[in-house]
Amino acid sequence: MLRYLTGAGFFAIMLAALNPAAAADAAAGKTKAAKCTVCHGLDGLAKNPDAPNLAGDSANYIRKQLDAYKSGERKDPQMTIMAKDLSDDDIADLAAWYSSLKVTVEMPK
Amino acid sequence: MLRYLTGAGFFAIMLAALNPAAAADAAAGKTKAAKCTVCHGLDGLAKNPDAPNLAGDSANYIRKQLDAYKSGERKDPQMTIMAKDLSDDDIADLAAWYSSLKVTVEMPK
pTM here? Predict the structure, then answer.
């Protein structure tokens, strides 16, 4: 089958294979984020003073933190539990969702 | 001198002694945050994909993370260095500054 792929198609597939974030699905991430909203808010702004805002954080940062909670490198009573059953796809989708939220800041006078 | 204090004045002093955040100074935090802006942005929105947004995060969360970096409980190549010389007042002021920034989110259509 490979010989039917154009050069560009082959390149895109190789890129997707090398970069898990390329397969990330923000819409799927929004659905998967349902359990996150209790602390991190529907809009990614935290409702719990022990939780950070996630809206507009880079996908790279969110993915690294979820990986770190999953591996135990970073520990938190809530997040250690929340992250332990996330797949790499779940993590990529959640990172895509939260990083897609556009944030603006009003600076104090 | 204590006998010249009103009840309310005494109460305020006891409260400040019990709650380090009561002494936090957001304006001082803005000045102290100069070295943070390279990665976390002038407005608390990260310029570096390895760094999180800080704008509007709770003072409690920011304080806990800086304490954790300072103690070594949380590790990061940049933040371990940045946090090690921060005093408790520095941390309270930085937390007051970033938490004072008002954030709004535009949800995707």
Answer: 0.81
